[in-house]
Design goal:
Elements lengths: L4 H20 L14 H13 L10 H18 L24 H16 L15 H13 L10 H16 L5
């Protein structure tokens, strides 16, 4: 049982590390993060020690701490969602891309459109990924805008971009276990 605030915080940390590992490893029993080093925490820690070839003591000695913290960091890196990248220009506020434009934003729009097209069960390969806002891209934008109940003007402004980004997130979530 913890007797100082430092010991209690150490137990919380230990439980947080074990809980993270247990989310993705069925060999590590989950624990509550309650700051109490009880039977469930001891069992989870012992399972961790067994799995990683450490002496099975059910206590957090320095070797166990080092291994546990290392595995926790690796798990967080492996399973944390990628950080978002904000690409659409902030200024001017009325920026848009449309027919005739050739730039990286058009390529990203095409990529997002392809993800959205896939969501609707259509063949995304019909839309090129060439960074050129041609007739096929314009028609795909208009179709997307219609589905989203936006004015189908064939230009990608901030509103259409944000809807495309959300559709892209939805499409990507179909590929992740979370």
């Amino acid at each position: 049982m913890a007797t100082t605030p430092y010991e209690t915080q150490a137990i919380y940390n230990l439980q947080r590390y074990l809980r993270q590992l247990s989310r993705f490893d069925p060999d590590i029993p989950p624990v509550d993060e309650d700051g109490i080093f009880g039977d469930r925490t001891r069992a989870s820690l012992s399972a961790f020690q067994q799995k990683y070839g450490l002496p099975i003591t059910g206590t957090a000695d320095p070797d166990t701490w080092a291994a546990l913290f290392g595995e926790y960091l690796a798990s967080v890196e492996a399973y944390t969602r990628p950080a978002p990248v904000y690409l659409f220009p902030r200024f001017p506020t009325d920026y848009s891309v449309g027919p005739g434009d050739e730039n990286i934003y058009v390529g990203i729009v095409q990529l997002l459109l392809r993800e959205a097209i896939t969501l609707y069960g259509q063949d995304a390969d019909l839309l090129p990924l060439d960074g050129v806002f041609g007739p096929l891209t314009e028609e795909a934008v208009k179709n997307f805008q219609r589905v989203q109940r936006l004015p189908p003007d064939g230009r990608v402004d901030r509103v259409t971009w944000n809807r495309l980004a959300r559709a892209g997130e939805l499409a990507q979530s179909r590929y992740s276990p979370e």
